[in-house]
Every structure is written in structure tokens, then in C-alpha cells.
Write a structure and sequence with these properties.
Layout: H1 3-13, H2 18-21, H3 23-37, E1 46-49, H4 56-61, E2 68-73, H5 76-85, E3 90-93, E4 105-110, H6 120-128, E5 131-142, H7 148-156, E6 176-186, H8 189-198, H9 213-223, E7 227-239
Parallel strand pairs: 1-2, 1-4, 2-3, 4-5
Antiparallel strand pairs: 5-7, 6-7
The structure holds S-adenosylmethionine (SAM).
Residues 7, 11, 22, 25, 29, 50-53, 56-57, 73-75, 78, 95-97, 111-113, 116-117, 199, 201 line the site of S-adenosylmethionine (SAM).
């Protein structure tokens, strides 16, 4: 399995446990929905959502944005869950890094999917190319401050964490960027790792060598109990002239 297939398989397997565990995604989706709803747009915009998951953003935004929606995700299982929760829009399995669509859109939106892209700048260029003039690409992604406590606990023990390195905000594609930073509390490091698994976000960074049981136990000890975990979300708004 290549990395993209691993990512798809992990999210597909987590479809049923996703919503109960996706606390951070729900917070980010609410923030992003407010940003999108405030943007200028035609009366009945054409909207594309990528990486919809079970539809946390879809359900927050669709009622506020009457238009022609196409909702997509890499994982067929996630897409099916989104469709049964909100019938009405068109749904389609799609890799947003390789969109196979002839249509143009007034809005392209996505919440916390782009951190899984192999090449975010290239994907953003392709997606902007699918906008009508005056359209907006608006998406959130994780930035470098995310999970710093997890990374620090590993580094304090001379270990590398499997969580991918998220980019500094300055290294993200050119955009208007609104940062959202918040902490979530966990009973302990084990609960944080379990939550990542329950949302399907357990695929490690490329090349990561899994740690042994004893090493993980030391990481959990270093984190303490309870422990906080920072989410550093960057919301990007890229508008087409
Ligand atoms: C953390 S979930 C976020 C789901 C949803 N947007 C939300 O806010 O709850 C990430 C989603 O991105 C999807 N995904 C990952 N890589 C993708 C890609 N290249 N193209 C489309 N979707 C992708 C996954 O299948 C998963 O459903």
C-alpha cells in the first residue's frame, strides 16, 4: 500500500468512531463555516467541498449557503456517512490532489483534510484553477504548533514522534491566513493516541519507525496525566481575481 492508500484505509476504518472523537475538527469546522459564510459570493454559488469526512463542515455550512454543492472525499466509507447524514448535495469519491472534474466553482472549501496532501502548494494551485473569477478557495490545515506537547515529550527522551511535521504558517501557500489556536485536555497521552486512531489520523509520517511498548510508556509518563494538546489551525483564503 502506498501512503495515500494507507491514509484512505485508516479513515475508512474510522468512519463509525469518527464523530464521537473529532472534537478538534468540530471546533475548526464551526470557525471555518463562519469565515466562509462571510465571504462575498453569487446568490446560488457552485460549491465544491473536498475531504468532507462524515460531513462536519458540510452540515454546518450547507444550511447557510444555498447553492449547487458537490461534496467529495478520498474515502468511499466516509463519503457514504456524509451522504446519509445530509442527503441533497451531489457526492463523489475524489482525491483532491488529483481532481478529475471539468466543472468550475465559486467556492471550494475543506476542513482539516489538506494536512494529508503529499504536495499542498501543487494541490492549492490546481484547486484555484477550478475557481470561477471572483471565487474563493477556503480551507483549514494543521500548522507547526500542533501537538507540540507530544513532540516535546518525545524529544525530551531522544525519540522521534510519528506525527508528521506540520508547516510554519509562513511556509503555507500565499493566502489570507486566519490562525486558530486552542488546547484540548486528555486524561493522558494514551487517550490522545487513541483519539487520533478513532478519527483515522493514525497514519505515521513517511519513514517513521514505530516505537516499542516501553518507549511509548516513557512518552506517556513524560506527558503526565492529565495532559493538554495544542491545535494550531491555519485557515487559508485564496481568492481568484
Ligand atoms: C480529519 S478528516 C476531516 C473530515 C472533515 N472535513 C471534518 O471536518 O470532520 C480528513 C478527511 O480528509 C480525507 N482526505 C485525506 N486525504 C485526502 C485527499 N487527498 N483527497 C480528498 N480527501 C482526503 C480523509 O479521507 C478524511 O475523511
Amino acid at each position: 500500500m502506498n501512503r495515500k492508500q494507507q491514509v484512505r484505509a485508516a479513515f475508512s476504518a474510522a468512519t463509525r468512531s469518527y464523530e464521537a472523537a473529532a472534537r478538534a475538527q468540530a471546533i475548526s469546522a464551526g470557525f471555518l463555516a463562519d469565515l466562509v459564510a462571510a465571504l462575498p459570493r453569487p446568490t446560488a454559488p457552485k460549491v465544491l467541498e473536498f475531504g468532507c469526512g462524515t460531513g462536519l463542515l458540510t452540515r454546518r455550512l450547507h444550511p447557510r449557503l444555498d447553492g449547487d454543492w458537490l461534496v467529495s472525499d478520498l474515502s468511499p466509507e466516509m463519503l457514504k456517512a456524509a451522504e446519509s447524514a445530509l442527503p441533497g448535495p451531489r457526492y463523489r469519491v475524489m482525491d483532491a490532489e488529483n481532481p478529475d472534474l471539468d466543472e468550475r466553482f465559486d467556492l471550494i472549501v475543506s476542513n482539516l483534510a489538506a494536512q494529508w496532501f503529499a504536495d499542498l502548494p501543487a494541490a492549492a494551485t490546481k484547486l484555484v484553477g477550478m475557481l470561477n473569477p471572483g471565487g474563493h478557495l477556503v480551507f483549514s490545515t494543521l500548522a507547526s504548533g500542533s501537538f507540540r506537547q507530544w513532540r516535546d515529550a518525545h524529544h525530551s527522551l531522544g525519540l522521534e514522534s510519528g506525527v508528521p511535521d506540520f508547516p510554519d504558517v509562513e511556509a503555507l501557500p500565499q493566502a489570507r491566513i486566519v490562525e486558530q489556536i486552542f488546547d484540548l485536555e486528555y486524561a493522558d497521552g494514551r487517550a490522545f493516541a487513541a483519539e487520533l486512531k478513532h478519527i483515522g489520523a493514525g497514519t505515521p509520517a513517511p519513514g517513521h519507525v514505530p516505537l516499542g511498548v516501553g518507549q511509548m510508556r516513557r512518552v506517556f509518563q513524560a506527558l503526565g496525566s492529565p495532559c493538554a494538546m495544542t491545535y494550531h489551525v491555519a485557515h487559508l483564503i485564496i481568492s481568484k481575481e
